[in-house]
Amino acid sequence: MTEKTKVAPVLMQRNKFDVAMELTHLYYRDQLVDSIEEVQEAFTKFYATADMAERMCGDDLVKLVPEKIARLWQARRI
After folding, report:
1. How distant is the alpha carbon of residue 22 from its chain centre?
2. Rounded to whole angstroms, how far apart are CA atoms 53 and 67?
């Protein structure tokens, strides 16, 4: 007799370093890099943005996104 195991989905969370790495990779995926300093500067900006977003509550974050996306966020909360 075979047993079936149920596995609950786990929400994957990324830390701000992971977010900055992924955003940097996406940003430079289709373009040439002029210098390592350019990549370092982009990573630093993405890391700072992720750090700031981590410290903000959802209501404050919604102010930073386009209005159409903000309406979707607010509709989900109702």
Report:
1. 8
2. 18
Instruction: Say which residue the tokens 């410290």 belong to.
Output: 55
Q: Crossing angle of helices 16-28/36-55, nearest 10°?
A: 140
| Alpha-carbon gap, residue 33 to 22, rounded angstroms | 16
pLDDT in tens, the chain (78 residues): 567 777 766 666 889 999 999 999 999 998 888 899 999 999 999 999 999 988 888 778 778 788 887 787 677 665
| 28-35, Cβ contacts within 8 angstroms, sequence gap of 24 or more | none
Contact between 42 and 36 (Cβ < 8 Å): no
Long-range contacts from 58-64, C-beta under 8 angstroms, 24+ separation: none
